[in-house]
Design a protein that fits this description.
Elements: E1 5-12, E2 15-21, E3 23-34, E4 41-53, H1 57-60, H2 70-83, H3 89-103, E5 107-117, E6 120-124, E7 127-134, E8 141-149, E9 155-167, E10 198-208, H4 216-232, H5 244-258, E11 262-268, E12 274-276, E13 291-293, E14 305-309
Antiparallel strand pairs: 1-2, 3-4, 4-5, 5-8, 6-7, 8-9, 9-10, 10-11, 11-14, 12-13
Helix pairs in contact: 2-3, 4-5
Length: 315
């Protein structure tokens, strides 16, 4: 996103400051039931809205005549949810941003971050229930970042966070630099360990050059399916991964090849390690069957970030 409003101010002959100001409301829970027919649908959002524009007086002099109260912004989130037809955070955020710009002429940009908590429809005897859903305590979270301005088309980035992905074989890591502090053992052909579990807590996002023809909800599902496909490899054989880095690059480039409406794919892939438990100390053989797992949040963990941009992209 572009920088917030910039304003130069001199409060003392020897002092000059540059103010960048933006404000809004965060963590607004907007839960909507779509009741267009017999089958209800749930869109469960958490919204952050931040405004830019001619708002500096509140900082510089305490004059609030340019300020749309954050509580008003929260109320607007709910009003637009009722007035707008949407099935995803992207369409909702674009509508909300355009509404704020239409009604408040001194605002020049609206930046929105929207998380979507996923609810799954219950199936009974193979049939979808019309109005019963389930969701884990910590459900899959879709998200989007949307910037709406007066002078350009909305800029949309979509993605998913906190998705655990795991390959239980077909992964190695060897040929790295070894110095006096290296104790990592290589994994792969010719080493004592031919493969390993490769697991991550994936953060993925993709930036649109233009709105997808199928709509954001369908496009986002297809894009994520593509990322998982190229993490996995063919169903029957898989694909050997020489590093998380190599796999992440394949995921990003293959997805950009398929979806021409995208400018960029970003993947953060922190390691979730699985160490074979040393049962030999008890006279037991453990041929990579029982492991002690870690997590990437509370323990030291490698983190790989991969950002692939289409040549010529301005993002």
């Amino acid at each position: 996103a572009a920088a917030a409003e910039s304003h130069e101010h001199t409060s003392h002959p020897a002092m000059a400051y540059r103010l960048e100001s933006t404000y809004g409301k965060q963590a607004v829970p907007v839960f909507k039931l779509r009741k267009g027919g017999r089958m209800h649908e749930v869109v469960d959002l958490e919204v952050k809205i931040m405004l830019e524009g001619q708002v500096a007086d509140s900082w510089l002099t305490g004059d609030n005549h340019q300020i749309v109260p954050t509580e008003t912004q929260k109320n607007t989130c709910y009003a637009l949810a009722l007035k707008t037809e949407y099935d995803c955070g992207e369409d909702y955020a674009i509508a909300l941003g355009k509404d704020m710009l239409t009604r408040h002429k001194h605002i020049t940009a609206v930046n929105l971050e929207v998380k979507e908590r996923v609810w799954e429809r219950v199936h009974i005897d193979g049939k979808p229930h019309s109005h019963v859903f389930f969701s884990a305590r910590d459900p899959i979270k879709r998200f989007c970042r949307v910037r709406v301005t007066r002078t350009a088309a909305p800029v949309v980035t979509s993605g998913l966070i906190d998705i655990k992905l795991m390959k239980t074989t077909q992964s190695g890591f060897a040929g790295y630099i070894e110095d006096e502090y290296t104790n990592l053992q290589p994994v792969g052909a010719g080493s004592a360990s031919p493969d390993r579990i490769m697991c991550t807590l994936l953060e993925s996002s993709w930036s649109y050059a233009r709105p997808p023809a199928t709509g954001y909800a369908k496009a986002n599902k297809a894009i994520f399916d593509s990322l998982v496909e190229h993490w996995s490899g063919p169903v029957d054989t898989g694909r050997f991964s020489k590093s998380v880095q190599e796999t992440a690059y394949i995921m990003a480039t293959k997805t950009l090849d398929r979806f021409q409406e995208l400018n960029e794919v970003f993947l953060a892939t922190p390691n979730i390690h699985h160490y074979p438990y040393p049962l030999a100390q008890f006279g037991m053989s453990n041929p990579n069957i029982v492991f002690q797992s870690t997590d990437s949040v509370t323990t030291a963990s490698g983190r790989i970030e991969t950002r692939v941009k289409r040549m010529g992209s301005k993002l």
